[in-house]
């Protein structure tokens, strides 16, 4: 919980925290600049209390006395703390089969077509960019595994899942979720693709080894260099660009276009749009874009 702004002894306005150090103007401005340059996330003044409240936990974890000391950590070694910072200030809201119409399109149209086209040695690749705690890539793995069984299992098919947050990636790698997180998964799929825990873990479920085989989980900052060269048949970047300003979105969409072949698909979140940001794509469904022919 935060309290109203008060005057600090150094003359800077600050938001005083009831249970922790306050965030001065100078430290907040440094954090805003740092986060924008390294994560592409634009923090307005209205985010000040949120930043203070969430970063207090990092101060405690690192045993730092105040936000000034935390800013010094970022100055000395930006990369070491970057993932933790990004995780703290962003909201990783996700779910299995979230925005189910995207997975219906994959199941009913795209995966059967791709598998048929690639039976003679082609590669099928999907990228979950901003995979958070793993629900999205494992949902992709479910529909992919089912399509391979139905239409041809001898296709080289893989899913790349990336995120900046160390905590989110750790959860994704474990693939263990509370039972109530499986709400969007049908009873049939729960039985097929999850292993129920026992004893102290009876309220948890672990993803099936077959899904793990299909998914590679790696750390990646979308603003930095990308080691993969593609091409990807589809890129899922849902509920990620909502944090970015217009120039950052434009650069990101252009980079995605470079990793998609003609006719490749880009999936965005329900509150996101590419309107006026890139002319390489056509909108063909609800937040579904297809790369145009040259």
From TrEMBL:
UniProt superkingdom: Bacteria
Keyword Transferase listed: yes
Gene3D superfamilies in UniProt: Chemotaxis receptor methyltransferase CheR, N-terminal domain, Vaccinia Virus protein VP39
Binding site for S-adenosyl-L-methionine: 92, 94, 98, 136, 163, 221-222, 238-239
A GO biological-process term: methylation
EC number: 2.1.1.80
One MF annotation (Gene Ontology) recorded for this entry: protein-glutamate O-methyltransferase activity
Catalytic activity: L-glutamyl-[protein] + S-adenosyl-L-methionine = [protein]-L-glutamate 5-O-methyl ester + S-adenosyl-L-homocysteine
Keyword field: Methyltransferase, S-adenosyl-L-methionine, Transferase
Domain CheR-type methyltransferase: 16-294
SMART domains: MeTrc
Keyword S-adenosyl-L-methionine: yes
Record's function text: Methylation of the membrane-bound methyl-accepting chemotaxis proteins (MCP) to form gamma-glutamyl methyl ester residues in MCP.
Official protein name in the record: Chemotaxis protein methyltransferase
Source organism of this protein record: Dyella jiangningensis
Taxonomic path: Bacteria, Pseudomonadati, Pseudomonadota, Gammaproteobacteria, Lysobacterales
């Amino acid at each position: 919980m935060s309290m109203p702004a008060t005057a600090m002894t150094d003359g800077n306005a600050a938001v005083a925290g009831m249970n922790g150090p306050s965030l001065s103007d100078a430290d907040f401005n440094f954090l805003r600049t740092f986060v924008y340059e390294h994560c592409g996330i634009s923090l307005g003044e209205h985010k000040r209390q949120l930043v203070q409240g969430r970063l207090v936990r990092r101060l405690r974890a690192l045993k730092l006395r105040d936000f000034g000391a935390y800013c010094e950590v970022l100055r000395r070694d930006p990369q070491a703390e970057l993932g933790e910072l990004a995780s703290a200030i962003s909201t990783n809201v996700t779910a299995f089969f979230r925005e189910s119409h995207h997975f219906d399109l994959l199941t009913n149209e795209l995966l059967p077509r791709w598998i048929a086209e690639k039976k003679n040695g082609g590669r099928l690749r999907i990228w979950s960019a901003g995979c958070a705690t793993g629900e999205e890539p494992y949902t992709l793995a479910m529909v992919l595994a089912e399509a391979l069984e139905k239409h041809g299992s001898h296709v080289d098919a893989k899913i790349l899942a990336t995120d900046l947050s160390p905590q989110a990636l750790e959860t994704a790698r474990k693939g263990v979720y509370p039972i109530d997180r499986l709400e969007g998964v049908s009873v049939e799929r729960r039985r097929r693709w999850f292993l129920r825990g026992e004893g102290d873990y009876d309220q948890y479920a672990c993803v099936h080894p077959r899904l793990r085989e299909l998914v590679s989980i790696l750390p990646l900052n979308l603003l930095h260099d990308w080691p993969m060269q593609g091409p990807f048949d589809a890129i899922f970047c849902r509920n990620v660009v909502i944090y970015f300003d217009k120039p950052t979105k434009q650069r990101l969409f252009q980079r995605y276009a470079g990793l998609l072949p003609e006719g490749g698909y880009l999936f965005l979140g329900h509150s996101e749009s590419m309107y006026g940001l890139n002319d390489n794509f056509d909108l063909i469904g609800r937040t579904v874009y297809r790369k145009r022919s040259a």
